[in-house]
Amino acid sequence: MKKIFFLILLTVCGCLGTNAQFRKDPILNIQNEDKKPLNFGYFLGFNQYDFQFEYKNDIGQDILVDKAFGFNVGVLGELRINEFLDLRFEPGLLYTARTLGFPGFTNEADAIREVRSTYIRFPLLLKVSTKRFNNLKPFIIGGGYTAINLGSKEDSLADNASGEFRMTGDVYGYELGFGIDFYTEFFKFTPSIRGVFALTDELIRDNDPNSPWTGNIAGMRTRGIFINLTFE
Fold it and tell me: Which residues does the UniProt record annotate as the domain Outer membrane protein beta-barrel (predicted)?
């Protein structure tokens, strides 16, 4: 994570330095970029996904989640509403991995479940920007999304008793974030940070209602953070 933030910081500083953002009379790059009614681009990024668990009974031992870094890639289409508002559609592919540690087991094969997920996401977002300042423009962004989890194993007949951790294939939620548009000489570069919050319970319970893995779980929802680098 430190390396990622350092890379973003270097890129942002490079944009600031190259474009002389704070000169008295700066050169304004691509001045008509935000006047087009439709705009397109693509994004690359990183993610770190977690789970939020809700329990039926407080037994004093939570399920542990070991988080790993994943990646995001996708395209975007933007509809300009006015100078400060844009409607964005950002379909993309996301890969992430989480390792769950269940309490109460002495055997590692029973206690550990690795959850690998590949999501196809369809976010519809509203971008609210400030007035452009020289060659940069801060903004906040938020909206809802639907996603398909290709690694859900939803249709599997096996459950945790056979070493299979199952999740729902369809996920709904919302995301919130902020970022800055940097106007370079040839394109618009945008780093942003997003928080992702699933609203749907993604857990498929084991066949045994008293399962030591899922019997005490009242709800399991994804929480995550994205760092996206967008090029338009």
Answer: 31-202
